[in-house]
Specification:
The protein is an alpha+beta fold. The protein has helices at 6-10, 14-17, 27-31, 45-48, 60-64, 72-75, 84-93, 99-109, 117-121, 144-151, 153-161, 171-174, 180-183, 186-189, 211-214, 225-230, 237-241, 377-380, 428-432, 444-448, 460-464, and strands at residues 36-37, 40-41, 245-255, 261-271, 274-276, 288-293, 318-320. The strands form three sheets. A three-stranded antiparallel sheet has the order 5-6-7. A two-stranded antiparallel sheet has the order 1-2.
Length: 465
C-alpha cells in the first residue's frame, strides 16, 4: 500500500466526524488532556496535552466498555489483543525461570503487533505506519488492505491475493470476491462466544469453517466421489484444496544500536506438505492436515538470554496450517496416486532438518505416503494416462455454481485503490503479468521440485485409521 503523508495521518475531518455518533463525546472524555480549566479555554499546547492518552482503546474495557459492554470485555482477552497465543507456544518450549526474559523480548518484538480496537476501527496498524483511516470517523468494517493484511501480509495476503509466483489467488477472492470479514465474523475477531478463553488459535471450536458455506459438499452423501470416500474426519479440507505456501526457517530477533527492534529470517521457501495432525481432537478430528514450518529456532531469542527455549522440541516446529490459497483443483487431488503412494506431498523424515527429527515433531512426521487401498481400483482406471503429472491449478469455473461468477461492478471501496484484485474473467497471466501453470504442462516432478517416489506398502487399515 502507498505511504500516507505525515499530515494525513493525524488530520481530522471535522465535517465528516460531525456525522459520527462518537461526535457526541468530548475529545477529552476519551483522550484526556485539558481543553478548559476553571471555565477558561486552554490555549497553551503543552498544558492542553498534559496527561493525554494517544489510544484510549489500548485498554478496551476502559476506553470502549462504557458504550460497548457486550464487546469490550471479550476483546480484551482475544488473540488479537493479548499475547496468550505466543505465551502458549513459547512457554511450552521453555521453563518458568525463563519466562521473564521472554516477556521482555515480547515488549520489543510482539506487543506493538497486537491490535487495539482503534487499530482496526479508527487507524491503520502501527506495522504500516499508523494514521487515521477516515479522518477519525469510526469505520464499522475495517478495510482489508489497510488493516487485516497490513498485519497478516507476509503469508496470508500473499497466498490469498496470489502473490506467490506461479500460484493463483484464493478462489474465494478470485470468484467469490470475499473479504476477510466475510468469513471471520465480528464475534470471532472480538473473542466473543467463549473465544476470549482460547489460548491458541487452533484450540476451541473451529471458526470459521468450510461447512458454513459448503455443508452439502462435504463428507458422505455429498455426491462428490472423493468426498464420499474420504468422509469428514480423515482429511481437513485444506489437505486437498490448498496449494503451496510459505515456510520460514530460523527467525532471530535483535535490536539496533538505536534500540530499534528487528528480526531476520534464514530462508523463505514455498512448498506444500501433508503431515499428521498434531492437535487431533473432537473439534479437529482429521488424521492428516497441511503443516507449515514455524519460523523459530532454539536460539531465536538469544539477544535476551542463553538457552531460553531449553525445551525447544516440546512443541512441533511443523504446525497445523490453514493456508488461504484454496483452489478446487490442486496437484494433490488431480488423481488418486497424486496423493496415495506419493511421498513428495507428505512430510517424511527426509524433509525435516536433522536437529528437528525428534520430540513433538514425531507426532507430525509421516513415515510414508498411504498406500492405495484395496477395493478402489476402479478409480485408477479413470486417471490420466501414465506419464502425465499432477497439473497445477488453472481455473475454478463451476466451483461456486455451474459457471464462474462475475465480480460485482462496484466493491464499495472495501478493497481500496491500493488493493490489487483481478477483474472477473482475467486469467492469472493477465493479472499478475506472468503465465499461470496450465493442466498437463507440468509433471509432478517439476511442480513439487522432486521426483515422486515409488509406491510403498501400507495397509488400508493403517490409512483409514
Amino acid at each position: 500500500m502507498p505511504p500516507v503523508e505525515a499530515w494525513a495521518k493525524v488530520w481530522i475531518d471535522g465535517e465528516a466526524y460531525q456525522t459520527d455518533v462518537h461526535a457526541y463525546i468530548a475529545c477529552t472524555d476519551c483522550h484526556k488532556g485539558q481543553s478548559v480549566i476553571d471555565g477558561v479555554p486552554v490555549t497553551d499546547m503543552d498544558q492542553a496535552h498534559e496527561g493525554m492518552v494517544l489510544d484510549p482503546s489500548a485498554d478496551p474495557e476502559l476506553g470502549c466498555g462504557n458504550c460497548h459492554p457486550n464487546i469490550a470485555p471479550h476483546a480484551a482477552g482475544s488473540l488479537h489483543y493479548d499475547l496468550a497465543g505466543y505465551d502458549t507456544v513459547l512457554h511450552e518450549r521453555s521453563i518458568p525461570e525463563n519466562h521473564a526474559a521472554l516477556e521482555e523480548m515480547q515488549t520489543y518484538h510482539c506487543n506493538s503487533c497486537h491490535a487495539t480496537c482503534g487499530d482496526c476501527h479508527i487507524s491503520q496498524p502501527n506495522s504500516v505506519g499508523g494514521g487515521l483511516l477516515e479522518g477519525h470517523t469510526f469505520v464499522r468494517t475495517p478495510p482489508m488492505s489497510r488493516t487485516c493484511t497490513a498485519c497478516h501480509g507476509s503469508r496470508v495476503k500473499n497466498e490469498y491475493y496470489g502473490l506467490n509466483e506461479g500460484y493463483p489467488g484464493d478462489v474465494h477472492l478470485r470468484q467469490g470476491r470475499l473479504a476477510c470479514t466475510d468469513c471471520h465474523t465480528s464475534a470471532e475477531l472480538h473473542g466473543q462466544g467463549g473465544l476470549s478463553e482460547v489460548v491458541h488459535r487452533y484450540e476451541g471450536a473451529q471458526a470459521p469453517t468450510c461447512e458454513s458455506c459448503h455443508e452439502d459438499q462435504i463428507g458422505p452423501d455429498s455426491g462428490i466421489p472423493e468426498h464420499d470416500i474420504h468422509g469428514k474426519d480423515l482429511l481437513s479440507c485444506q489437505t486437498c484444496h490448498s496449494v503451496a505456501y510459505t515456510n520460514c526457517t530460523n527467525c532471530h530477533v535483535d535490536r539496533s544500536e538505536d534500540d530499534v527492534p528487528f528480526y531476520t529470517i534464514e530462508s523463505h521457501d514455498v512448498g506444500f506438505f501433508i503431515g499428521r495432525n498434531p492437535t487431533r481432537n473432537n473439534e479437529r478430528p482429521y488424521k492428516y492436515v497441511p503443516v507449515r514450518h514455524v519460523p523459530v529456532d532454539p536460539n531465536s531469542f538469544e539477544r535476551y538470554g542463553e538457552d531460553l527455549l531449553v525445551n525447544f522440541l516440546n512443541r512441533p516446529t511443523w504446525a497445523y496450517a490453514t493456508p488461504h490459497n484454496i483452489q478446487r483443483e490442486t496437484p494433490q487431488n488431480a488423481s488418486c496416486t497424486s496423493c496415495h503412494d506419493n511421498d513428495a506431498v507428505f512430510l517424511t523424515l527426509d524433509k525435516v532438518a536433522e536437529s528437528e527429527r525428534g520430540g513433538a515433531n514425531l507426532d507430525v512426521i509421516v513415515e510414508r505416503a498411504p498406500a492405495f487401498p484395496e477395493g478402489y481400483e476402479q478409480y485408477l482406471e479413470e486417471e490420466a494416462p501414465a506419464g502425465e503429472g499432477a497439473a497445477a491449478p488453472s481455473g475454478d469455473a463451476g466451483f461456486w455454481s455451474d459457471e464462474a461468477e462475475s465480480a460485482p461492478a462496484d466493491d464499495g471501496g472495501f478493497w481500496t485503490d491500493d488493493a490489487a484484485t483481478p477483474a472477473a474473467g482475467d486469467s492469472a497471466a493477465d493479472f499478475w503479468g506472468e503465465p499461470a501453470p496450465t493442466p498437463g504442462a507440468d509433471s509432478a516432478e517439476s511442480f513439487w521440485g522432486e521426483a515422486a517416489p515409488a509406491a510403498t506398502e501400507e495397509s488400508a487399515e493403517d490409512f483409514w485409521g
